[in-house]
Fold:
Amino acid sequence: MLQRILAGFQNLPGAEQAYLVSRQDGLISAVGKRGKNPDLEFANLAVKELANLERGSFGEGIELWIEGDETILVSRISSDTSLVIRGKKNSRIARWRHAVDRDTDVLNSLVR
Structure:
C-alpha cells in the first residue's frame, strides 16, 4: 500500500521520485526511475533544517519548497517522518502539495 501511494506521488505532473525518510531510521521507502537513487544526504539535511526552524522564532517547520534546476517538496508527515518529492524544473509543486495533504493520514497510519 505504501508503494502504491508513493507511486501516485511519482506520477504527478513533473514528479520523478517520491520517498519517505525517517530521522531515526533513514530511508523507509522510495519510488522513482530505475537506477536513480534517492538523495538521502539532501533529504536528511532538509529534514534537519526544518527541525532547526523550531529553535528560532519562526515556529514549526512543516514544509519546504525548492524551485531551481529541479523542483523539490519536503513535507513533514509526522514528528519523525518526512516525504520528499523531486522532479523537473517548473513542475506543478502546488498540485504536489494538494496530493500530499490528501494522503497524509493514510501515510501516517502505514508508517507507525
User: Anything to note?
Assistant: The two ends are 14 Å apart (CA to CA). The mean pLDDT is 88. The beta strands are 15-22, 26-32, 63-67, 70-76, 81-88. Helices lie at 2-10, 40-53, 93-111.
